[in-house]
Amino acid sequence: MVIAPDPVWSARFQDVLSGAALARGAIETAYQPIVDVARGTVVGYEALARFPGFEERNPERWFAVARDHGCVAELEAAALRCALRHRRSLPPNCFLTINVSPDLLGSEPIRAVWRELGDMSGVVVELTEQAPIDSYAELDTDLDQLRAAGALIAIDDAGSGYAGLAHLVRLRPALIKIDRGLIQDVDIDETKRALVEMVGTFASRIDAWVLAEGIERAEELATLVDLGVPLAQGYHLARPGPPWMPVDQSVALRLASTAHPHLSPEREFDDGERTVRAALEVVPTVTDLTDAPALFAEGPHLQAVVQLDDVDRPIAVVESTADLLATAPGMRVNVNTPLPEALERAVTRPGAQRFEPLLVTDAAGRYLGVARLERLITAVTKLMS
User: Fold this and answer.
1) Closest CA to 235 of 226, 253, 247, 243
2) What are the pLDDT digits (tens) for 117-138?
3) Domain 7-256 class?
4) C-beta contacts of 266-272 below 8 A and 24+ residues apart
5) Tens digit of each residue's pLDDT (9 = 90 or more) over 197-213
6) Greater confidence, 312 or 100?
7) Where are the domains of the chain?
8) Rounded CA gap, 354 and 347, in Å?
9) Is residue 37 within 8 Å of residue 230, measured between CB atoms?
10) What pLDDT was estimated at residue 162?
């Protein structure tokens, strides 16, 4: 069925999509904090489109009608440009998530935004569930280009709509956002608790982070902390607002003082002793593999070198064996990951990879160092002693 354009909406789109729309404030962006529950600190922000100058302000309504009018790609591109205006002032060690409909990734308006942006380190592209995907293979080229530019890929609303298991398996995102429908009343619903645990197990196997969104009650947050969900977002923590608002202070203090079940209660440790930071080791890096042999020649006891891309993200672990270089993609882990979690992920890898060092990154995916299995074991032993 062909939907006849609504003149009122057509005029609205013409206003919002005009070149001066951002300057006039026809479209704006609110930023909602994303919180590391282990420390009670903000590690990222989600950019959310707003339409303050119009009677209709519901963003979902705007994008749904834009799809009916055939201009949804242009509207999403305008929202992306607005969201990215403040990117350069993003606080250190924080990432910015932006929403894109996966069926629009290959559209020229969206590709133009990426070209204008260039370096996308610290940016997380969330694939929303606005439309079903007929062929995941059609997304590969655009997703590969985004990753090459430094972006991470996230799946929004996992557990609802189109963001099902096939979506997760095929796209292998770096961040999985659990749908609000699974988070609501998770403290009193055993089935939802089991599903959240299942998502967490799956995420650990593909080396992805889990983010619970839509948290509105303290009991929901406490349950998610107990379940080991590392990242959280919702009105209980902080509402969307101007750049770069902090989390509610009382909630932050409560999270920071929460006893985590995998840590020994007999002794207080600082954050550095509780996390992968305690096992962090700096090793030489290269961007060109042809430079690696010289490093091994200069350091006869050097066991590994890390290859980085041009935006300081780790690509591979490089080892020298019998005058030959061996490379492996390695497993990435955030520097603030609890030690027991990191150790579990390390030892459950396939046997051939089990003793490779973990590649340690900050919240934006930038390289910080490595964590060897033996150092992880030593650090965990100290926690438990």
Assistant:
1) 247
2) 999 989 999 998 666 666 667 8
3) alpha beta
4) 269/383, 271/38, 271/39, 271/336
5) 888 888 877 788 899 99
6) 100
7) 7-256, 271-384
8) 6
9) yes
10) 44
Q: 281: number of CA atoms within 13 Å, CB side?
A: 17
Burial of 189 (0-12, 13-18, 19+ CB in 10 A): middle
Whether residue 234 is predicted with pLDDT greater than 60 in this model: the reply is yes
Q: Could you tell me if 197 and 204 are in contact, meaning their C-beta atoms sit under 8 angstroms apart? A: no
DSSP classification of residue 258: P
Contacts of 319 (CB under 8 A, 6+ apart): 303, 304, 305, 325, 326, 327, 328
* Size (the chain), residues: 385
Q: Could you name the CATH architecture of 271-384?
A: Roll (3.10)
The secondary structure of residue 9, as a DSSP letter, is H
Tokens of residue 215, six digits: 């948290």
- Cα Rg for the chain, rounded, in angstroms? 22
H-helix segments, 19-96: 21-24, 59-69, 72-83
Query: What does pTM read for this prediction?
Result: 0.70
Predicted confidence (pLDDT) at residue 332 exceeds the cutoff of 70: yes
